[in-house]
Amino acid sequence: MNKNPSQMRAYLAMSYYTLRATVRNPATLAFGFAFPLVFISIFGLIGGSSQSLTLGLPDQTGQDNPIIQTVKNLSFIKTETGSTSVLEQRLIQGKLDGLLVVDSKPTTPPTYAVSLTTTSGNPTGAATAKTVVSGLVDKLNLKLSGVSSPPVSFAEQEVSGRKFRYIDFVLPGQIGFSLLSTAMFSTVFGFIALKRLLVFKRMFATPVQALTILLAQGTSRMIIALAQTIMIIALGVIAFNFYLPHGLQTFMELIVLSIIGLISFMGFGIFASGFASNENTAGPIVNLVTLPQFLISGVFFPTDSLPNWVQPIANNLPLSYFNQAVRKVTTEGGSLPETWSYVAGLVAWGAVMYILATRTFKWE
Amino acid sequence: MKSARPIIEVKNLVKKYGKFTAVNDVSFEVKEGELFGILGPNGAGKTTTLEIIETLKAPTKGEIIVDGLNIADHAAEVKRRIGVQLQATGFYPELSLIDLLNLFAALYDVKIDPMAALKEVQLEDKAGSFFEKLSGGQKQRFSIASTLINKPRIIFLDEPTTGLDPQARINLWEMIRVIRKQGTTIVMTTHYMEEAEALCDRLAIMDSGKIIKTGTPHQLIDDLLATGFKKPIERKQASLEDVFLHLTGKALRDE
Predict the structure, then answer these.
(1) What pLDDT does residue B1 have?
(2) B131 CB near a chain A CB, below 8 Å?
(3) Do B102 and A17 count as a contact with CB atoms less than 8 A apart?
(4) Hey, which bits of chain A come out as E strands?
(5) At B60, is the pLDDT very low, low, confident or very high (cuts 50, 70, 90)?
(6) A160 confidence band (pLDDT: 50, 70, 90)
(7) Pairing between strand A53-58 and B202-207?
């Protein structure tokens, strides 16, 4: 490509105009940009509320006692008020983790009877509510009995770290999702259309070389894929406080991983476009490659939660390698060299696909 | 056609797809500056023959010289000297005509004035339109404009008027005649007899992968008459096409 200056001009022009034609295609924008945006927005919002405890405070309970005051002051506890029957209904529906009722007796000093109602239908919420409320009661008992130096003391040391949220897990998965989508959908359907419309053939009637045509096709998709990656990261950082452990360096590492990932995934696309003769046969082939990976490669939930026998398969899929590499540099705060084993996996998958593609690929 | 120098020489060309022989030992010459037609029914091997000369397909056997170059050894250089119109589109549907001309100028590594190129084929007012929005005749005219980008010595037109209405066809004939007058050699395929008769200096009639006969349209007709052939019905002085064009006029109907 570099030997011949006219190939360079042809390469640049083809990359530019292919990109231009592609961004005018609504399917590209829907799959590559809109889907990941919607997913991230939904999952970003889910992640925000997963850490809280919601208690119902029936109207009959007194509000001006130290227990209710403390509960209301704790930032991780949300409270709801209402009639007992309504709140009980909400508890059974799993919308509340427990009902808290405090009866005060006007003795001197006043005494309090705290009762917590939970439901067996929501064991996690019940356990949390029980722990929190009983802890509060114990603390207040000590305080009100005037015990200032209890025989058992407790001190908590926190190792500085950051809060893990669902967005931190799901956003790297979305980068992989959009890269694999672009590589498969846009390469397979794009190439089939270009063959059917004889666009490739017409280009072959000019002095441009086959490799130049392929490189330009790849480059235009690379630009789109990187735009998607940048958009996803930007949305995560701006709207959902997505954490980049080393700032710009992590960002650059994500770009490098995206380039490697897309090149590898495009191998699948070019290979698949070789034996899919038209759009109708391409659909199932594209789904066969993408859907299982979207499900079990750690896009939406960790591969750890899969059955044991699936894990060896799931962990060695190309999208899993990509997702693991990305999470290495984001959630784990690692550096690019630490991802080498995953990158090697991606490169191996890609190499196999490109070798197979040379056997199936046809220009028309 | 006055010059005796052949610009294309095809010698014993064979193209096989598995057991099927698409082109079966075909030989012919095209002279510099002439408009050479390959006439034949669908499936005769016209397109295959053309695409082999255009270096888009490899021959199974045979030798082809284009403008003094053996295409087997000089494919890239041959591509620089020829212009190719494919039977179907061949262009990105989502690019404007200006975009497409600029793209092809880059592929040939030449400088062009896209507007002037569009003017030559009466498409200057469609400069910003997407290729897919053009009518059939406009698409063919644009396709011809794209074959001229690299100022080729020879252009190949594969069934350029198939599917066009009579006005668009006559308009395209005019355009082809103008290109020929400017000194470009033209090789075209068609399955319309009147088109071959109206346009071509010389013809090759092809069927089942073989060239059956070569000559000027007049020669071919005279040869047939010499065998004692007579048309069964006397021909009227006008055809239905004449009636149609008389009634609807020759003005182009592309929007």
Answers:
(1) 45
(2) no
(3) yes
(4) 53-58, 77-82, 98-105, 111-117
(5) very high
(6) low
(7) unpaired
Burial-class residue A181 by CB neighbours within 10 Å (0-12, 13-18, 19+): buried
Whether residue B86 is predicted with pLDDT greater than 50 in this model: the reply is: yes
State the Cα–Cα distance between residues A15 and A214, nearest whole angstrom: 10
Report the distance separating Cα B248 and Cα B86, nearest Å: 30
Please indicate, yes or no, whether the overall pTM of this predicted structure exceeds 0.80.
Answer: no
Evaluate if residue B150 carries a pLDDT over 60.
Answer: yes
pLDDT (tens digit, 9 = 90+) per residue, A54-88?
A: 888 888 777 777 788 888 887 778 888 888 888 88
Structure token digits, residue B246: 């008389």
Mark yes or no for CB contact B79/A20 under 8 Å: no
Query: Using the beta-carbon criterion (under 8 Å), do B80 and A207 form an inter-chain contact?
Result: yes
By CB neighbour count within 10 A (0-12 exposed, 13-18 middle, 19+ buried), where does A111 fall?
exposed
Is the CB of A12 inside 8 Å of chain B's CB atoms?
A: yes
Structure tokens belonging to residue B110: 């030449």
Minimum Cα–Cα distance from B143: chain A residue: A202
- Contact between chains at B107 and A199 (C-beta distance less than 8 A): no
φ/ψ region of B249 (left if φ > 0, alpha if ψ in -120 to 50, else beta) reads left
DSSP for B213-230, please give it: EEE-HHHHHHHHHHTT--
Burial of A337 (0-12, 13-18, 19+ CB in 10 A): exposed
How confident is the model over A109-117, as a mean pLDDT? 83
C-alpha to C-alpha distance for A248 and B80, rounded to whole angstroms: 47
- CB contact B91 to A (< 8 Å): yes
DSSP state of A51: T
Alpha-helix runs per DSSP H in A182-308: 187-196, 199-204, 210-240, 248-275, 279-296
Q: How far is A4 from chain B (nearest CA, A)?
A: 11
Residue B158 CA to residue A107 CA, distance in Å, equals: 105
Distance from C-alpha of A236 to C-alpha of A223, rounded to nearest angstrom = 20
- Which pLDDT tens digit goes with each residue over B182-205? 999 999 998 888 888 889 999 999
Q: Is some CB atom of chain A closer than 8 A to the CB atom of B142?
A: no
A56 Cα distance to chain centroid: 32
**Cα–Cα distances in Å, from B234 out to B225, B237, B238, B242?**
15, 10, 12, 17
> Which amino acid is residue B170, in one-letter code?
I
The residue length of chain B stands at: 255
DSSP letters spanning B13-61 = EEEEETTEEEEEEEEEEEETT-EEEEE--TTSSHHHHHHHHTTSS--SE
Candidates A9, A22, A194; nearest CB to B109? A9
